[in-house]
């Protein structure tokens, strides 16, 4: 099963790390909060974990089915 990712807008501090690392997958919304790009290409599971791990606020969550993956 492929991992899925979400961005918790309430936790995002708009550092831009995810947008800089994977601009085809993440972007800023009108409030400068990170969000997923609709129709974005799938990233490899390992890469999703790397991007989530690099988020300074922990706003990027990675799931395997309904279970959240501990990225730390």
Automatic annotation (TrEMBL):
<protein>
    <submittedName>
        <fullName>Ferredoxin</fullName>
    </submittedName>
</protein>
<keyword id="KW-0813">Transport</keyword>
<dbReference type="Pfam" id="PF06902">
    <property type="entry name" value="Fer4_19"/>
</dbReference>
<keyword id="KW-0249">Electron transport</keyword>
<keyword id="KW-0003">3Fe-4S</keyword>
<keyword id="KW-0408">Iron</keyword>
<feature type="domain" description="Divergent 4Fe-4S mono-cluster">
    <location>
        <begin position="4"/>
        <end position="63"/>
    </location>
</feature>
<keyword id="KW-0479">Metal-binding</keyword>
<dbReference type="InterPro" id="IPR010693">
    <property type="entry name" value="Divergent_4Fe-4S_mono-cluster"/>
</dbReference>
<keyword id="KW-0411">Iron-sulfur</keyword>
<dbReference type="InterPro" id="IPR051269">
    <property type="entry name" value="Fe-S_cluster_ET"/>
</dbReference>
